[in-house]
Design goal:
There is one protein chain. This protein is an alpha+beta fold. It contains two helices and 24 strands. The strands form six sheets. It has a six-stranded antiparallel barrel. Strands 5, 19, 20, 21 and 24 form a five-stranded antiparallel sheet that branches. Helix 1 packs antiparallel against helix 2. The protein is rod-shaped and about 145 Å long.
Length: 359
């Protein structure tokens, strides 16, 4: 507390007395000293014992370490069905979005019929070939099977095989061509069907998707595997402060409110460039959500301390303003732990002394 006394001088006015006969009688001026007891007030604190704790806030982002980004590989097809919305849980293989590819479906059906017809003709041709070969054997069955007969039978069979060879080769080639064409049509058809490749939550879907037209390689939908979602931080200098299995409180904003999520350190063997924290209550949190962990770095119990904002720095050292005779005087001190709100004093002050928080 600094007291400032201001001396005020109250000067009495000259009282001039006028006598009835016109003679003037003057009284001497009265000088009165009035003490102004107003004081300039300082915010002060008493040096005493207490706890000193230092925390640090670690910023994190909720991130899916395994995601699937889906887009269509074709342009210009009408998006006919959208079977999911943001926040839905999907399973691997589930149909999510489909294009209007009815024309491709009809082409595929026609192509499959063409292949079936060719394969049937191929089968019939092979059966005819086999019949002609068996007929040739039957024709020579009752002969004497002389060398000449055997040679004639061999030659006849060779002619039969030669006769059917070109037809069968042409059919085989046609079937292969049509199957390749069918595979291409099916591939295009499948391009119009968007399936989930992993189990997870739909964390992004393009707005107003239904009844619009596909754009090649444009991001349509993202699936995030919730089992591999973590709050991730790159503030690696504090990694050694966390222990496996320890539960901490992480705060994030949701709908304008502070939400508290219990988390535990996870994947510590992978903490090379990032730290990972897993929600322990199974909460579904939007990926990309920012949060903050408050970590206690150090603490001192029942030590001599002062408010942290009472401590000042100069080129000569650390000091406080000690109140002496109502005036603040610089007092150099030695600090221990400087916490969030208080600072430990290891030398320079005694319990009960009064310090000014500001000068």
């Amino acid at each position: 507390m600094k007291g400032k006394i201001t001396a005020g001088i109250l000067i009495g006015s000259m009282l001039i007395m006028t006598t009835a006969c016109g003679a003037q009688e003057q009284k001497e001026a009265e000088v009165v000293l009035v003490q102004d007891n107003s004081q300039e007030t300082y915010h002060t604190a008493t040096v005493g014992y207490g706890d000193v704790t230092k925390h640090v806030n670690i910023n994190c982002t909720y991130t899916a370490t395994q995601t699937q980004n889906l887009s269509f590989p074709v342009d210009g097809y009408l998006i006919e069905k959208v079977n999911v919305k943001k926040g839905d849980y999907v399973t691997k293989g589930q149909l999510l979005v489909s294009l209007d590819v009815q024309d491709l479906k009809e082409q595929i059906e026609e192509q499959e019929y063409t292949i079936q017809s060719l394969e049937l003709k191929q089968k019939q041709t092979k059966e005819l070939q086999e019949f002609d070969l068996e007929s040739a054997d039957t024709l020579f069955e009752y002969t004497g099977k002389s060398v000449q007969d055997r040679n004639e039978l061999k030659k006849k069979k060779e002619n039969i095989l030669k006769q059917y060879k070109t037809t069968l080769e042409d059919l085989e080639d046609s079937i292969l061509v049509e199957k390749d064409r069918l595979a291409a049509q099916k591939a295009r058809y499948e391009e119009g069907q968007m399936f989930a490749g992993i189990n997870g939550e739909v964390t992004y879907i393009k707005t107003s998707l239904l009844d619009t037209y596909s754009k090649k390689d444009e991001l349509v939908l993202t699936i995030s595997d919730q089992d591999t979602c973590y709050f991730v931080s790159d503030t690696m200098e504090y990694a050694d402060f966390f222990a496996e299995g320890e539960t901490l409180e992480l705060t994030y904003r949701e709908s304008g409110k502070d939400m508290v999520c219990p988390v535990q350190p996870a994947l510590k063997e992978s903490w090379n460039e990032e730290m990972y924290f897993k929600p322990v209550d199974g909460a579904l949190i939007d990926t990309g959500k920012s949060g903050s962990l408050t970590l206690e770095l150090d603490s001192r119990k029942n030590v001599l301390c002062v408010p942290a904002d009472a401590v000042h720095e100069s080129s000569n050292g650390t000091f406080v303003y000690l109140m002496q005779d109502g005036l603040p005087q610089m007092r150099y001190v030695t600090l221990g732990l400087v916490g969030d709100d208080t600072a430990e004093i290891t030398d320079g002050l005694q319990p009960g002394e009064i310090i000014a928080l500001t000068k």
